[in-house]
Structures are given as C-alpha cells and as structure tokens.
TrEMBL record:
Residues 27-84 form the hAT-like transposase RNase-H fold domain. This is Zinc finger bed domain-containing protein daysleeper-like. PANTHER family: BED FINGER-RELATED. Residues 143-211 form the HAT C-terminal dimerisation domain.
Amino acid sequence: MEYYMFEDENVNEDEDENEGDDENGSVDEKSTIKKAATNSREKLLQYYNKTNDACVIVTILDPRLKMEYYNNETWNDDQKKEIREKFLNIYNSTYSNPNSSSTLSNSLNNEYKNSITSKVFKRKHTQKIDEFQVHLLSPVCDESVDPLQWWKVNQTQFPRLSKMAMDYLAIPSTSVPSEECFSISKNLITDKRNKLAGKTIKSCMCLKSWFSSSLSDLFE
C-alpha cells in the first residue's frame, strides 16, 4: 500500500511539473506571437508611404469606412493628418473647380482681395472644402451598402466627390478578375472558333459576366 501511495505522489509531482511547463510554454508562445505582430506592423508602416495613394482615397470615399477606419485603428494623429492631406491634395488638384483654386487667390493683390469678386471666389472655395467635411461628418453606412450605388444616389449633394468616387472605387482591388477573363476565354476561343472577331468575343464575355452576376435580373 505504501508503495502505491509513493508512486501516486510521484505522479502528482510530475503532473505539477508538466502543468508548469505548459504555462511557461503558453507564455513564451504569446510573447513570440506579439513580437512577430509588432515587427510585422513596423515593417508595414516602413513601406506604407511608398504605396499608391489610391488605397487611402478609396478608404475615405467608402461610405462604410471614411476616416472611422483610421480613427478606430492604431493610427496616430500625425499619420491621420498626412492621410487627410494626401486626399485633399489629389481632390483639390484634379476634382476642384478651377475658378476657385488657391493658386489664383494667392496671386491676387490686396485691392482685388477686398473686392466682391474675390469674396465670391473664396465662398466657392469654402463650399468645395465643406463638401469634403460634410462627407466626413455624416454617419457611416451599414456594411451591406454598395459604395458605388451610394455615390450615384448622393451625387447631387456631392458633385465633385462623387466624380472622384466613381473614378477610384471602380479600380479593381486585385488582378484576379482580369486573369479569370483570360482563363474563361480559352473555352470560348477554341480550335474550331479561332476566327471570332474581337467585338464578338467582347460581347460574349460581357454577356457571360452579366448572367453570372446580379445583372442577369435585368434581362428577365
């Protein structure tokens, strides 16, 4: 009996040691994962400024995200300020009214600045900036909202931003759709149909894409 009791005590001691090893292993694993995540984030931020600004513009123009994405994540104030400046630089240089450009206002003399015409130009410039501010201050939409459809509905309220949104939100996020077209085209252009005109191929590919998507409802 004493032998078995002694053996049980050894077993309990071994179990305690194993539990301690498991806890230490769990702590080491969490520490390793945290360190890897931190290093990955630092590397991402290192190359982030070298990426295209389209990603920033699309995020802000998405009515489901706007600046809330950057506010909710771990972006500091300097980074968020830089993001806004990038957006406004492209917006003002490409989609703003040429009559309300800041370059013209800076070149005016003091007499012109005090004139009625100058005040009209300044008012237009303020309205242009307000269009962007109104977009940011309005509440974000539900995740089920289609961004392109939302901008189409609200293009009267945001004439300049809607044009910008149509240009940027239409950019494919990946090259997968175009690669799929080449793969599908092999089934269309066979050895027995190798003389199809380009217009015919384009029409067939478009029809197949439309019938595969929700656009097929338009034909019913």
